[in-house]
Amino acid sequence: MDTIFALATARGRAGVAVVRLSGPCAFAALERLNGNLPEPRRAVLRVLRDGDEILDEALVIRFERGASFTGEDSVELHLHGSPAVVSAMLRVLGEMPGLRMAEPGEFTRRAFENGKIDLAQVEGLGDLLLAETEAQRRQAMRLLSGVLGEKAEVWRGQLIRVAALLEAVIDFAEEDVPEDVAPEVVALIDPVLDGLRAEVAGFGAAERIRDGFEVAIVGPPNIGKSTLLNMLAGREAAITSEIAGTTRDVIEVRMEMRGLAVTLLDTAGLRESSDRVEVIGMARAVDRARAADLRVFLLDGDDTGLPIAPEPGDIVVHGKGDLRDDGLPSVSGLTGAGVAELVERIGEALVVRVASAGTIARERHRRAVAAAIQALGCAREDVLMGTESEELAAEKVRQAIRALESVVGRVDVEDFLSEIFSSFCIGK
Description:
By secondary structure, this protein is an alpha/beta fold. It has helices spanning 26-34, 83-95, 106-113, 119-130, 134-144, 147-171, 182-201, 203-211, 225-233, 276-291, 339-354, 363-385, 390-408, 414-422, and strands spanning 3-7, 14-22, 44-50, 53-63, 74-81, 99-101, 213-218, 251-257, 260-266, 294-299, 315-318. The longest helix has 25 residues, at 147-171. The model has no long low-confidence stretch (mean pLDDT 84).
């Protein structure tokens, strides 16, 4: 296997730049740079040279096979973060025999292939690198810590016991084995099914934590939707005007609320219009509002003519609160009156929705778990039908086991490995 190297930190000027090496020639490369090897897993200060030329004075850490992130002999060079220093080091490493520049995600792929992490942990690491909010960080850390793999292993162990009972009845029908294993098999399958169904039920919330919520601001023209969006964004994200129908398309602003990623949608004002462009904008507004996770209705009176009505859980307030004195709940993006309370209400509504979040957060996980649920449901029915259906039940249990193994990468997952690792940066 080639020895790979790459810059593991961001390019550009920085205090420190980390270059990683992994593979059978990693230690030889370090010896060429410094002349001797430090004690494993101990950071030491070394002068790194290319022949007689000093490249840098850097902290060097050596990791032996099995004790590194990749599971291979590895080296980290903590250089001064100058682009010139990094460029010189990468050039020298590239000229050494047996070394080549790493491909995107190749360090992590080697960790997976060497059994240091499972596939769900790989995805957790990818999510962690992209995390923007506290909720995303926590969810990614759960995956990276191996929680999903641990759950899958427990379920797999129970299903292996189920398969063994069924195979015993099939293969040794004439021997001294229990004649009716149905009660024990059902007792093992039911808790697994409960756990899998709970994960699927919590998938939507977990996916929203990972991808973010959409919150649409809906209402008639000139009610202050764009002004409110600008107030929440802290910048002029949308054009505001006293002319009705100024907003024609959906304007999006990404922000964080209560540790959750939220995309606010400023939509076109909803009214009767003969302007074709405005009609198109309103149609888009209605479509995006209906698809949003939460809608904030800014109203002026009852606004019964709106083409979309509030759903349970939506937030309804009156717009232009700076011009109202009727005591009704209102908000003003111009003065900020009621904005803090509105943000709190939005945050509370979203926090309630993520309280039931499960461990699975990717569509791949959901499909695998759903396949396991379907297979186990069929197996349970076959078992209860009697001994003539035990072979069918055993095959369904094996299908469920394979589905769970695919979550952590224990079966052939080549079809999506390249897609997963290609999303990583080169030094990871």
